[in-house]
Design a protein that fits this description.
The chain contains 7 helices and 9 strands. It is an alpha/beta fold and 214 residues long.
Length: 214
């Protein structure tokens, strides 16, 4: 384990996964500092305020996560790909038999992912407005696509066949913004439109919020 690396971390906690296809599973979280986007409905602005973080060595992070006694880890942000040592961080957990999920907005890429990638690494990409850009090098490593259904999102932001065909989980996740009723209605319409194009989707709320969990 490289001992000269310091990682900026906003929070470390154990909870129940509230989003995507790991929903309901017990999982440890590392929230990394920094984000390159500023989404209007972001629910973790403290992750990029530049002051809510502590620096940890890889060894310290590993010991903290081991202390939770789980073998599933979610690395989130902010935007985890801003941390250039992300592959080193992922690797220590993959090497110890963890399943590791990385949540990314999809705009960035790190070549180091190629050499550590295996079937226990799940990259969940949640493209963000207004561009919904996904870095071309990331696409073949994406396990799942997840979209926040807000006031503005359109079918063409989700239905991009050239990307969908390369993503491993063919079922797209639709997540109504802040579990609002209007957004649920919109998600139902989009789900139907996607189905007409041959794409299945799951509407999943932010379950951790429904449950009152972090
Ligand atoms: S990409 Fe995520 S963390 Fe960054 S501003 Fe958007 S919602 Fe917030």
């Amino acid at each position: 384990m490289k001992d000269n690396i310091k990682i900026k971390v906003v929070e470390i906690f154990r909870t129940v996964e509230g989003e995507g296809s790991w929903v309901g599973l017990p999982v440890s979280f590392i929230r990394l500092e920094g984000c390159n986007l500023r989404c209007p409905w972001c629910d973790t602005p403290y992750s990029y305020d530049g002051k809510t973080f502590k620096e940890y060595s890889l060894k310290e992070l590993f010991e903290k996560i081991e202390g939770f006694g789980l073998k599933r880890l979610c690395i989130t942000g902010g935007e985890p790909f801003l941390t250039k040592e992300l592959p080193d961080l992922i690797k220590i957990f993959l090497d110890s038999g963890y399943k590791v999920l990385v949540e990314t907005n999809g705009t960035l890429w790190n070549e180091g992912i190629k050499s550590i990638y295996n079937e226990n690494l799940f990259i969940v990409c949640s493209p963000k407005p207004p561009s919904y850009y996904i870095h071309p090098d990331l696409i073949e490593y994406i396990s799942e696509l997840k979209f926040v259904i807000d006031e503005y999102i359109k079918l063409e932001n989700i239905y991009r066949p050239e990307i969908l065909e390369k993503v491993k989980n063919k079922t797209v996740i639709l997540q109504p913004e802040s579990n609002l009723k209007d957004r649920v209605k919109k998600a139902l319409i989009l789900q139907d439109e996607l189905l007409k194009k041959g794409v299945e989707s799951r509407i999943i709320p932010q379950c951790h919020k429904v449950l009152g969990l972090p």
